[in-house]
Amino acid sequence: MRKVSFAEFGGPDVLRLVDAAEPHAGPGRIRIAVRAAGVNPVDWRIREGQFQRTRPIELPAGIGHDAAGVVDEIGRGVAGIAIGDRVFGAGDDTYAEFAVLSAWAPIPGGLTFEEAAGYPSVVETALRILDQVGAQSGQTLLVSGASGGVGSAVLQIAHDRGITVIGTAGAANQDYLRSLGAVATTYGDGWVERVRRLGHIDAALDLAGSGVIRELVELTGDPRKVVTIADLGAPELGVRFSGVAGSMREALTAATDLISRGKLRIPVERSYPLADAARAHADSRAGHTRGRRVVLI
Fold first, then answer.
1. pLDDT greater than 80 at residue 288
2. What is the pLDDT of residues 107-151, one digit of tens each?
3. pLDDT of 2
4. Alpha carbon distance 97, 1 (integer Å)
């Protein structure tokens, strides 16, 4: 089969499309014929070697965690699923023609493979950091870098929970944030004052890692009310870096419920062929994403 792999840490150019042995579903796992794989910032952070001190990997390595496709192999002990079922979920090395998933759920009605591949890690992350930051119904949450995949999910889930959300993004994404139920404002010079004029901030999330941790602490008045998924230096300021995933199975159940109730929809901004995974990584790292990026197989 074909898969994307890298043999050294570095920029997008280290990614290679290679021939590899097919993986097989062990106990408690399923294998899918991948139709689409989600592109997440954690993918290029791993490729760059950012997590080698905390979560080392051996090279050469595959890449990717999220996928949607058709079940074609079922491991021992797995029930409630059949060959040919359409599923989305998470596993390892999903930028490939076949991938083994450790968590999965049926694709909600109305979603294509391309759309479904963009949900798993995004929704898990959004649910996790919303719980960690502790924002409650009736409070106001500031989301810095709100237009990407995680931001899109955070805004909609928070809105469903009765939380008022102020989101920062580029000028081109202001209407997009408003369409997701957020109060929108731009980042850049004067952004702190613009946020202050919009109201009191009870909690804040940093999704972009753009060097705003001190300002978020200032706005909330307490580093314990700020959580980041993008700034590795944040703990030096007393701010929690959230990098350990929670239950993917629970996240997929929640995603299915939200989608079925019409409370969550994450658009695919751009799709890439498997051979162009390097371009997908470069574009993801450049930011300014509206929704999700996916690789098609």
1. no
2. 999 899 999 999 999 999 999 999 999 999 999 999 999 999 999
3. 98
4. 6
Mapping DSSP onto H, E and C, the string for the chain reads: CEEEEECCCCCHHHEEEEECCCCCCCCCCEEEEEEEEEECHHHHHHHHCCCCCCCCCCCCEECCCEEEEEEEEECCCCCCCCCCCEEEEEECCCCECEEEEEEEEECCCCCCHHHHCCCHHHHHHHHHHHHHHCCCCCCEEEEECCCCHHHHHHHHHHHHCCCEEEEEECHHHHHHHHHCCCEEEECCCCHHHHHHHHCCCCEEEECCCCCCHHHHHHHHCCHHHEEECCCCCHHHHCCEECCCCCCHHHHHHHHHHHHHCCCCCCCEEEEEEHHHHHHHHHHHHHCCCCCEEEEEC
> Does residue 173 register a pLDDT over 80?
yes
Per-residue model confidence as pLDDT tens digits over 139-156: 999 999 999 999 999 999
Distance separating alpha carbons of residues 197 and 80, to the nearest angstrom: 52
Query: Binning pLDDT at 50, 70 and 90, where does residue 68 land?
Result: very high
The dihedral built from the CA positions of residue 166, 167, 171 and 173, taken in this order, carries a sign that is negative
Residue entry with tokens 């794989």: 37
Task: Determine phi and psi for 164, rounding to 5 degrees.
Answer: -80, 130
Q: Peptide bond before 235: cis, by omega within 30 degrees of 0?
A: no
